Amino acid sequence: MSVDLVGFLAVVLAAYVVPGPDFLVVVRSATEHSAKGRAAALGAQTGLCVHMIAAVAGLSLIATRSPVVYEAIKLLGAAYLVHVGIRAILTARRAARQRRAQRGVTGGPEDAAAPWGPAGNGTAHGRWRSGFTQGFLTNVLNPKAALFFLSVLPQFVHGGGSVTRQILFLGILDILIGVVYWFALVAVAAQLRTLLSRPRIRHRWELATGWLFIAIGVGVAAAA
Question: How far is C-alpha 81 from the chain's CA centre?
Fold first, then answer.
């Protein structure tokens, strides 16, 4: 099997380092709980598996060549990102109201450290399912991931062997590199949990990430 591994690895690493929707989902999940961050990472890479299999089967080619199908996928992905952002903002505001009500009863300090909240204190299964679902849907509804397997990845495939086998090889390598990268990112992002245990900082973080999700979703929808 003859593929341009050096060039491929350079492109893949650059693609992972540049922040995007997957990056935001994994980091935000990791700051809630490291297990949720790892689940989001695995969900994102599972979404890539779907794109890889679809590209090999030719389904992605049909989608990207059909303006209606491509636009539908793009708008679904944008709508999901906006949905995640709105939920984050509403969660932040609801938590702020609860803290104000609690201070009125207990008279506690305004910015005392507090548990992360429902997402952090939920069951292990609930955290894993929530993180995995967010990572998976964010990636599988991203038409740019499909375009990567159809337009970028084939540039590193040579005609001396089976094109299908080479695409599968490069796709699997891409997914494995992503798992290592995301897990390392989760380990770093999880360290922010102590800082974010302070309600005021956590509130700002939730609002900031929520609006960022919305902005990315609107940008995806508006993109040509």
Answer: 10
Instruction: Give the residue carrying structure tokens 């609002």.
Output: 207
List residues bridging with 205 in a β-sheet: none
Q: How confident is the model at residue 120 (pLDDT cuts 50, 70, 90)?
A: very low
Burial class (CB in 10 A: 0-12, 13-18, 19+), 199: buried
What is d(CA 185, CA 149) in angstroms, rounded to the nearest whole number? 24
| Residue 77 CB-half CA count within 13 A | 27
- How far is the C-alpha of 108 from the C-alpha of 111, rounded, in Å? 9
CA 221/CA 208 separation, integer angstroms: 20
How far, in Å, CA of 82 to CA of 218, rounded?
A: 7
Query: Cα(196)–Cα(27) distance, rounded to whole angstroms?
Result: 13
Which amino acid is residue 183, in one-letter code?
F
pLDDT digits (tens, 9 = 90+) for 36-75: 999 999 999 999 999 888 888 876 667 667 778 778 877 8
